[in-house]
Amino acid sequence: MDFGIAGKTALVCGASKGLGLGCAEALVREGVNVVIVARGADVLQAAAARLAALRPDGANGASPFVKQVAADITTVEGRAAAFAAHADYDIVVTNAGGPPPGDFRDWDRDAWIKAVDANMLTPIELIKATVDGMAARGYGRIVNITSSSVKSPIDILGLSNGARSGLTGFIAGVARTSIAAKGVTINNLLPGAFDTDRLKGTMEGTAKKTGQDIDAIRAARARTIPAGRFGTAEEFGATCAFLCSMQAGYITGQNVLTDGGAYPGTY
What we know:
By secondary structure, the chain is of the alpha/beta class. It contains eight helices and seven strands. Belongs to the short-chain dehydrogenases/reductases (SDR) family.
């Protein structure tokens, strides 16, 4: 299926590895120009080279461009750098590293402010900076990578549960404003257990807390997923690319759960 987005330009945050990179890869394969942002310059450069190798040949032999911006997207300066690389984005994939796990008794005000700033306020700032331009051009796709924890909270991820739930509530309202009639959609993509560094870090925290072997924890966790395995960044990226497609123009304000069936609820 041709998603009809070749030649569009996307900003993909947290794209040096993991789910962000999976989204960037899927978009590049669709002929989308991408600007990838992450803090680690060396890892980001390797990701950019990987993406460049995936680019399809476009019309008259032209290929989509891949640009990299080594910056912290959660800062004013980082966002300014992203928009200096390209001004008018058709697609924005927001993504920032999740807050650390722990016990809520140990988190002070600064820890909460940092979590809310990264996982709620930064996506809102990116939406504010791009949504009106998208509406004026008659097309726009914003996909926020959040977490399955907004539907089924994880006890040791209280910072993430709170901050991402705040973003979810905001999106529920803004996605249904006048921009919806102007070809702009905003959706949240909720990953469950994917085979990423984030999952590994969470399991290491559990192992340290309980004294269990990490391989045993990993195997036990996989058994709780009806699919019997962890997800891959490639399949997550494919879902993101679909939400950015022309075919997904009637999907907005939704929380798309990708978790192998782990969430047990009906709704």
